[in-house]
Design brief:
Layout lengths: L5 H9 L18 H14 L3 E16 H8 L3 H4 L3 H17 L3 E15 L1
Antiparallel strand pairs: 1-2
Length: about 120
């Protein structure tokens, strides 16, 4: 299954969750790894006692079944803060989207590591 399939995004949109920047699992949320890299480089450059900031990106992926992904979503505050009816409707739509694509998908993540040397 394609990474961050359109059907997942549609499930979030149908439930009024499109573009929710507070939800890292929402495929419609803005994601700008470059700004994270720039942020950390700037922070380290401005911190006394450190120099030579180096930001590295480590892309990786995780395959999920419907049940695995729903279990993961159930641990995220963006899902936990929803009322029970809203949460059940969102998770039901997400489950249907994943099941419609064969019952699983691959999610790509990027881990950002910032290294700096004590000066």
């Amino acid at each position: 299954m394609d990474d961050r399939c359109e059907e997942l995004g549609e499930a979030y949109r149908r439930n009024g969750r499109a573009g929710d920047a507070e939800d890292p699992m929402n495929p419609t949320a803005p994601s700008d790894v470059r700004s994270v890299e720039d942020f950390w480089s700037t922070e380290i450059a401005g911190a006394s006692g450190f120099d030579g900031a180096e930001v590295r990106r480590y892309p990786w992926h995780q395959d999920y079944t419907t049940a695995e992904y729903l279990a993961l979503l159930g641990t995220h505050s963006a899902c936990l803060v929803l009322g029970a009816p809203e949460r059940e409707r969102l998770l039901g739509d997400i489950a249907a989207a994943i099941d419609a694509r064969g019952g699983g998908f691959r999610m790509t993540y990027v881990t950002v590591l910032c290294l700096a040397r004590a000066s």
